[in-house]
Amino acid sequence: MAEFREGFENGSYDYEGIREVTIPKEWIAAWWEGNHDTPNGVQYFNRPEYDMKDTRRGHSEVYAGYCAANLFSASKVHNGCLIRGFNIGRNRLLTAEVMSMIKSPNAARDTGHEMRIGVDPGGGLDMDAPTVRWSGWYSTGANEYVHGAWVRQAVTTVSDSDWVTVFLHSRNVYWNVWSHAHWDEFVLTYEGTPEPPIPPPGGEFDWERLARAHEAFAAVLRGQ
Q1: What is residue 46's three-state secondary structure?
Q2: Integer Cα distance of 43 and 27 in angstroms
Q3: Are strands 41-45 and 113-120 parallel, antiparallel or unpaired?
Q4: Which residue(s) pair with 44 in the sheet?
Q5: What is the pTM of this model?
Q6: Which residues, 6 or more positions from 203, have their beta carbon under 8 angstroms from its beta carbon?
Q7: Less crowded by CB within 10 Å, the N or C end of the chain?
């Protein structure tokens, strides 16, 4: 079993140079902007703001370590993701999981804010694609919702190609003063080993092919 862990403590950057979209390194951001049909009628979705929570700057919204990723909207509705691709090889049984937390000032009623984690087993980058496998929603309307509480969200699937894509998704479909999504302690685990090399048809043994197979197996153990 190979494993990749991300505590969002490896630094951050402004995605596409946008100061209000500060996200963890190696991740990218995507969001809706403009009018979209929703179950609650047509709404105008704004670009959410992204930031990093850091206990060294006095923030408390961190599950472990000293950093967490954050997405929020103020007096607006939003629909946005953090996205990252991983090269793990095809036909791998994988599980992606993350700790999630919603903070909203109107915790006593449903503010329409919800979060989930998804994986596109074919490596696509479209958060609305039907190929994405999603966990269930954790929302302010759920019976188990607790304001400011961390919950574990996870999804399991099988990779269709060498690359898979992970989506950390937040949406807030009702207007609110502000509503924050937080993520921490992302983990991707997957199983399987590269297929063994096919022996050459007669002649001398292909030692170079064997060496490449060993290197591929070592890469899997390293989580590459």
Answers
A1: coil
A2: 27
A3: unpaired
A4: 35
A5: 0.83
A6: none
A7: N
Q: What is the pLDDT of residues 94-113, one digit of tens each?
A: 999 999 999 877 654 566 88
> Residue 194 pLDDT more than 50?
no
What letter would DSSP give residue 194? P
Chain-centre distance for alpha carbon 168: 3
Phi first, then psi, for residue 2 (nearest 5°) are: -100, 155
Helix (H, G, I), strand (E, B) or coil at 62: coil
**Cα separation of 68 and 14, whole Å?**
16
Q: Compute the mean pLDDT over every residue in the chain, rounded to the nearest whole number.
A: 86
Query: What distance in Å separates the CA atoms of residue 14 and residue 56, rounded to the nearest whole number?
Result: 20
Whole-angstrom CA distances from 164 to 75, 157, 216 are 34, 10, 18
Within 10 Å of residue 150's Cβ, how many Cβ atoms?
18
Secondary structure (3-state) at 132: coil
Q: How far is CA 36 from CA 40, 41, 79, 178, in A?
A: 10, 8, 10, 20
* Domain 2-192 class in CATH: mainly beta
Q: What is the DSSP letter of 84?
A: E
Q: Which residues contact 157 (CB under 8 A, 6 or more apart)?
A: 94, 119, 121, 133
Q: How many C-beta neighbours within 10 Å does residue 39 have?
A: 5
Rounded Cα–Cα distance for residues 8 and 30 (Å)? 18
pLDDT in tens, 133-168: 999 999 888 888 888 899 999 999 999 999 999 999
